[in-house]
Recover the amino acids of this structure.
């Protein structure tokens, strides 16, 4: 696992936290796609800018963890990744976490957003999560089925599976350090 994509069924699945822990355990630099997509003031990067930033990450680093879904540029990362880790939690858990994150970070800037965007919540974002959850879950399954032929695809469904996986990586790292 040298070039890893961390994706999830939805916002609130725990991608950022998981990627950060995995990066520490493997000593691999983590890139949060939100930090490249969102410019100061919540202005979206153009598809060209966003694509170029991902191509630069992949080109300039031998190992990396890229966290985030962004299906429009999925293939840029997937082409070079050796591992794809997919996190899936129930819709109610994802929604709870998104709202909790918003309340916890209200008025603050999140590091996974590049530190340039103050936390916010919009009804349209919650509506997007709710109305697209099932279709994205189905699309992710098809996408992962396609890539599992030539990549390590790890599907972690449920918080206990996610936690077990990351703890095993962390244990392996600490036992190899001693």
């Amino acid at each position: 696992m040298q070039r890893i994509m961390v994706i999830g069924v939805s916002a609130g699945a725990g991608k950022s936290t998981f990627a950060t822990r995995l990066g520490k355990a493997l000593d691999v630099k983590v890139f949060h796609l939100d930090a490249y997509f969102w410019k100061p003031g919540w202005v979206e990067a153009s598809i060209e800018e966003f694509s170029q930033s991902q191509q630069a990450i992949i080109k300039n680093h031998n190992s990396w963890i890229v966290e985030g879904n962004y299906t429009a540029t999925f293939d840029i990362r997937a082409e070079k990744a050796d591992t794809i880790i997919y996190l899936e939690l129930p819709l109610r858990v994802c929604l709870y976490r998104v709202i909790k994150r918003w309340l916890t970070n209200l008025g603050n800037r999140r590091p996974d957003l590049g530190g340039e965007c103050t936390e916010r919540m919009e009804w349209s974002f919650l509506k997007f999560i709710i109305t697209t959850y099932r279709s994205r879950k189905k699309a992710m399954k098809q996408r992962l089925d396609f890539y599992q032929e030539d990549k390590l695809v790890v599907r972690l469904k449920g918080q206990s599976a996610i936690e077990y996986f990351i703890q095993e990586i962390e244990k392996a790292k600490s036992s190899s350090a001693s």
User: Anything to note?
Assistant: The radius of gyration is 16 Å.
